[in-house]
Design a protein that fits this description.
16 helices, mainly alpha, two-stranded antiparallel sheet, 2 strands, 316 residues, globular
């Protein structure tokens, strides 16, 4: 793995605002509370030297990748019914975003006992959700096939956002990233989840005829443009970041869902977002789960900001 740029902090007022925003976004309220810094030494489901720990520390990749993942989820009609009619996305989108982001952070960075407890809660919720699509297709939220698609879309979204707007990982790193997610996917109840880029490409081919456009996709995009998720002054760029999420979907999927023309980015916008993504990869947010988890494991706050060759000596 290449040596990464050194970590940095922003001027105090802006840094303080980012720290507060990160703490709020990762604290959606009871029962969703976890101290990522304790218990000392307890491992997560993935290792600190994993690709996942690198990717998930970047807030821009998380936002852009998360929006892309939800678009792919909502393109599958059975998943769309479960997400749109059995969650608070329409009535309280910010809280839903907080809970989803929190679950991702716990799965990647949380102490193993907390991650296992959260996954168990999610599985109990899924077990109670089911119904039929308007055209009569039965669905259940705990269907292993649907869970596999949901997990795959999240893995794809976060990785593609990182590759497109932060820094491009090589093929071996991308395959490692997908493989790292298989264990947690199976714990959530998913089966046959992609363990490599090639397997992700095969899944897209398999799903080609199953994805469809719908008014819900446009409603979701509208919600994401007008719901303030990012702290000021970055909230002014939220619409651009939503379009960036559309832009990382495969071209065939963008066309199939009718999103390519209206939601495309200008070349200068892509350049700006790439600059922001690269900068976000260097900004050390001490209240973020990634840094707190490093402390739990006895690692320096900037552990995730150096290459693998330097990490052996980068201890507290």
């Amino acid at each position: 793995m290449k040596l990464l740029p050194a970590a940095m902090t922003l001027p105090t007022p802006l840094q303080r605002r980012l720290e507060t925003a990160a703490a709020c976004l990762m604290n959606p309220g009871q029962p969703c509370t976890v101290d990522f810094s304790t218990p000392i030494g307890e491992p997560a489901l993935t290792e600190p030297d994993s690709i996942s720990w690198l990717v998930f520390k970047n807030p821009l990749a998380l936002f852009v990748g998360g929006v892309a993942a939800v678009l792919l989820e909502l393109a599958e009609p059975r998943v769309r019914e479960g997400v749109w009619n059995h969650t608070t996305f329409k009535s309280d989108p910010l809280r839903r975003i907080q809970r989803t982001g929190f679950a991702a952070m716990v799965t990647v960075y949380g102490p193993r006992n907390e991650a296992e407890a959260l996954i168990a809660r999610v599985r109990r919720i899924h077990a109670a959700i089911g119904g039929e699509t308007p055209d009569g297709q039965a669905y259940r939220a705990d269907d292993p096939q649907l869970l596999a698609w949901v997990h795959a879309t999240a893995s794809f979204g976060f990785l593609e956002a990182y590759n497109a707007y932060v820094r491009r990982l090589d093929a071996e790193e991308c395959d490692r990233y997908f493989a790292e997610g298989v264990t947690s996917a199976r714990m959530y109840g998913a089966e046959s989840t992609p363990g490599s880029q090639a397997e992700m490409a095969t899944l897209f081919e398999k799903m080609n005829g199953a994805l469809e456009p719908s008014p819900v996709l446009l409603e979701f995009l509208d919600i994401m443009e007008r719901t303030s998720v990012l702290p000021s002054p970055f909230d002014r760029m939220q619409g651009m970041l939503v379009r960036a999420a559309v832009g990382i979907l495969p071209n065939s999927v963008q066309e199939q869902l009718g999103l390519k023309a209206r939601w495309s980015l200008a070349s200068w916008e892509r350049h700006v977002i790439a600059l922001l993504g690269a900068s976000a990869d260097r900004i050390l947010i001490r209240s973020a789960p990634a840094v707190q988890a490093c402390r739990r494991m006895g690692l320096a706050d900037d552990y995730l900001y150096v290459g693998a060759s330097a990490r052996g000596s980068n201890k507290n």
